[in-house]
Amino acid sequence: MKTSFILSASESIRDAILNHESELESLDRAIGDGDHYINMKRGAAAITELHAELAALTADAALNKIGLKLLSTIGGASGPLLASFFMSMAKVLKEKNDDTTTTYAAAFATGVEAIQQRGKAGLGEKTMLDVLIPVAQQFSTLASANTEINAICYALMQTAEEGMLATKTLIATKGRAAGLGERAIGHIDPGAKSCQLMINAVCNQVLSSQH
Amino acid sequence: MKTSFILSASESIRDAILNHESELESLDRAIGDGDHYINMKRGAAAITELHAELAALTADAALNKIGLKLLSTIGGASGPLLASFFMSMAKVLKEKNDDTTTTYAAAFATGVEAIQQRGKAGLGEKTMLDVLIPVAQQFSTLASANTEINAICYALMQTAEEGMLATKTLIATKGRAAGLGERAIGHIDPGAKSCQLMINAVCNQVLSSQH
Amino acid sequence: MKKFINKIDDVLIESLSGFASAHHDLVELNTDPLFLTRQHKAPNKVAIISGGGSGHEPLHAGYIGYGMLDAACPGHVFTSPTPDQMLAAAEAVHADKGILFIVKNYAGDVMNFEMAAEMLPFESATVLTSDDCAVINSTYTTGRRGVAGTVIVEKCVGSLAESGADLQTCKALGDKVNSRTASMGVALTSCTVPAAGRPTFDISDNELEMGVGIHGEPGRKREPMREADAIVQDVVSAILDALKPASDSEALLLINGFGATPLMELYLIYNTASRLFTEHGIKITRSLVGNYTTALDMAGASITLCLLDEEIKQYWDSPVHTAALRWGR
Amino acid sequence: MKKFINKIDDVLIESLSGFASAHHDLVELNTDPLFLTRQHKAPNKVAIISGGGSGHEPLHAGYIGYGMLDAACPGHVFTSPTPDQMLAAAEAVHADKGILFIVKNYAGDVMNFEMAAEMLPFESATVLTSDDCAVINSTYTTGRRGVAGTVIVEKCVGSLAESGADLQTCKALGDKVNSRTASMGVALTSCTVPAAGRPTFDISDNELEMGVGIHGEPGRKREPMREADAIVQDVVSAILDALKPASDSEALLLINGFGATPLMELYLIYNTASRLFTEHGIKITRSLVGNYTTALDMAGASITLCLLDEEIKQYWDSPVHTAALRWGR
Ligand SMILES: Nc1ncnc2c1ncn2[C@@H]1O[C@H](COP(=O)(O)OP(=O)(O)O)[C@@H](O)[C@H]1O
Ligand SMILES: Nc1ncnc2c1ncn2[C@@H]1O[C@H](COP(=O)(O)OP(=O)(O)O)[C@@H](O)[C@H]1O
Ligand SMILES: [Mg+2]
Ligand SMILES: [Mg+2]
Ligand SMILES: [Mg+2]
Ligand SMILES: [Mg+2]
Asked: Could you report the predicted ipTM of this complex, rounded to two decimals?
């Protein structure tokens, strides 16, 4: 992976977040405390400020730095979770940076596992993991089957979207919405939404770089 | 003066106050603290409760008791002022209860003087005195001229109304509205309004007892 | 109107009962007439009594206790108490050195306390507090209103009385503290008197009421809402105009919330106000930030500056043990 | 949104600067990373550090000082602070007996403090407070939230630490106090996060939010507004269900305002709650009424009951000297 890809992907992510201000804000207002958009925006802005510094690093070092920066910037529940994701992903890439889809799938899966461990949560608890776990699984499956990168991107975007939408009918058992019981039903989880947005942004970045 | 007259007059006063709830309330909200109606209502209710006890007293004793009761019930600025009025009036009637219009005019004037002393205020300060002072003066003048009681009543009601309306264009220099400066202009003083209502009620009481 | 109340006529007594029960080690409640006295009546001291309309909590009952008040007479919400309350309270707490009434300068309070003082069988004196510089003083008016600065007067006089000082000495300190104190308030919303059931005044989302009184009385001016620094600047200027402090003065800065303003905002105001006063050469050496003289559920705050001298500092710093102000014991 | 603020991004730092300057005798502010420490660092004691999202003032910075916290890490409004803050705070206050983190049980706080603890070069332990019985505990959820009961935990543990107790003893007391404490809150209005600029939730004039969280998170149920006694009755029942106290228990009753509720109403709530608990055979022997764990400008209140024993009483009663809680010195 090239560091320049990380930089442009992080810009796409930031734009995706900024473009969904009112949606993210109202989702967290409905079943959380209303700050998810602000948290994500603060994180994205901090990474943008870091660009010059990141540009000089290898991809894994850049991802690790991004993780550390998010850890000290976002706060809330999403901060340590996303930080763990990037730092764990960085570790995998540091060991084996062979630029294969399988390696990226493995790195992604390791990142998602780190989120699971940090948050002690799994599938079906109405969190970002309802997007991330299915995406990680599918990514690994498709990568080991040597699926072409464009096809992988389309598939992951669709899975992310499905996972995000599926949170709507769930009762939350983790995070702030866990206090809500039945009242959480009918609302998409904000973290699931922002993860779907980020996956979408990165996939589109990959797709456009293929042309 | 008969105690029974005091009792029925106090009922007319109470009704007049209760019938002007929203007007009194909004006047004090505009240039005061909004409690004048509540204060007057509390005072009127306390006198109603006292009726059985008052009925057994002479007129002057009843008026004195009313003053004391108002003193311990109304509070605010209007409480001690109205209490002083009734207690001073009672003193005059105790000395000379000859049932002449001149005596009543003198008693009324003494009551109004007590208000002036207690509140250290005079004419034109946008208070109840802008009703009471002109009424007291006119009452004395008409009484010494041996004017017929009905004519006196009509005249006093008109003077009270004029005094009340005149407060609208004044700047307040006493009471809560004194902090307002120019902003008090355009609002009738709540205490002036309630005094006008009370004078009206008593005059009508007199008029109807003449028939 | 949404409030934690049952019957409107019972709000005051239920609230005072809760207060007396939560602080039964400090105060005792008498219901007819209504007044509160200090537990552990101190012998041989001037008895300090305050009171006024309710709705300004913790003023005054929250300041009953060692080093401050001996009794408080609460009136109905925003309505002066009546002389029978002061007489009964005085009877309960007098200790042969006379009674000092501390009264906020409002026509109603002044007259009710005055009548009580006239009827009182003991020696008494009165300190009228009049720190609200929103109301321009003039010979034609009843003068400035007493607002949050009253707390400073009560604290200092209370501590002096504790030391056994006589009535005139206590009154003199109260008058001195009052004369060195100026306050001004700003409201962002109205308060709602329970018995009225609706806001005392209407104010839109882009307005503020500059110089508001603690009963929601309109102030100097309805002004456009603006950033905190600009608002604080105007209040600070009014206070400096009123006190005209020498440039090396030492002062106590009190940021008082009116009831619905978060501490976060009060400290932000403190930050700006202390910077502005400091720029003016004033040394802020004492501070108090919180809800000390409120106006029910009004959003807003007042700024109070009290110019200190060695005597005022001494009595401000002395131990106090009340429900709302406590240090040194 | 009408608030005393300048730029939204500066609210927190300006407010904390005001706080640090008003209480410079008690606390010191560090800005990068953001944390506050106690002046007069105590030698040879467990260092107690708390923190969490801002907007709950005086929690936590208001509880820094003798007999309570050594440091506090404020996050952005309603957002957990980050591990670098805890690490720097720990570095500043550790005194060779380890660090005790007191953390309100919210996913974000738990994870950020956990990561800090993992990175910490000192021994540490964590007390998770989880007194909010609005959230029914179950094996599937992250469990109850930590709310106003946190103040009682911080007070007792802080006093114990002052006596020189070791880390595990301090943690054990914290866990014990927490397990004997239950709270539940009711909101009448929403709060408005400055950065959001609009109320977190909509609520009409005849509704209340039963079991609301201190960030304006929806609670158990949206219910019709009703009289105070009926509301308090429901909250008291939930607390009794959660704690199942023996009928001769002794308890501390805390009525906590969320920021915009007048003291008059809080004491009225105290009056009803203490009567109801007493009817249930519980002896209320300690009390605290005021704004101790707020949610910005939310109107509402929570009720907290803490079942006392001799040990908890001893550490509750011990001297404390912080900006928001002070007695005995
Ligand atoms: N234990 C957890 N595991 C995974 N994701 C979680 C967990 N707790 C919370 N989240 C995610 O974090 C999101 C909320 O993030 P954010 O609003 O930034 O933080 P906070 O909840 O602290 O305000 C939720 O929507 C959810 O997706
Ligand atoms: N010094 C005074 N002299 C005469 N009347 C006064 C004086 N001060 C106030 N008032 C009258 O009292 C009225 C207000 O009474 P009220 O609202 O019951 O008491 P408060 O002003 O204490 O709330 C004013 O409208 C005015 O007429
Ligand atoms: Mg959130
Ligand atoms: Mg009035
Ligand atoms: Mg009044
Ligand atoms: Mg949050």
From this structure: 0.94
